[in-house]
Amino acid sequence: MLAQRTRITLWTATLLTTLAGIVNLLSAFTRGLPNRVQLLKPLFPFEYRADAHIFAALTGFFFC
Questions:
Q1: What pLDDT, on a 0 to 100 scale, did the predictor assign at position 49?
Q2: Could you tell me the pTM of the whole model?
Q3: Domain parsing of the chain, residue ranges
Q4: What is d(CA 11, CA 45) in angstroms, rounded to the nearest whole number?
Q5: What do you get for the CA distance between the two ends of the chain, in Å?
Q6: pLDDT digits (tens, 9 = 90+) for 6-64
Q7: Are 60 and 19 in contact (CB under 8 A)?
Q8: Is residue 39 helix, strand or coil?
Q9: Are the beta carbons of 7 and 36 closer than 8 angstroms?
Q10: Which of 35, 54, 57, 63 could make an S-S bridge to 28, C-beta 3.0–4.6 Å?
Q11: How far apart are CA 4 and CA 63, in angstroms?
């Protein structure tokens, strides 16, 4: 049996990892903020911005 402190540490790491995955999924499936999109348009073509959403979704699935 694991010590109480070890169990708390494992549960905390599990919850934080799950939270990071959920945030990544929400980021991937919601629209970008208009100000940020306007800043990125001259720097990155559409393909890079779309790929970033796909990458966020994939990493969100891996974290969850």
A1: 64
A2: 0.55
A3: 15-63
A4: 41
A5: 26
A6: 999 999 998 988 888 787 777 777 777 777 767 777 877 666 666 777 777 777 667 65
A7: no
A8: helix
A9: no
A10: 57
A11: 25
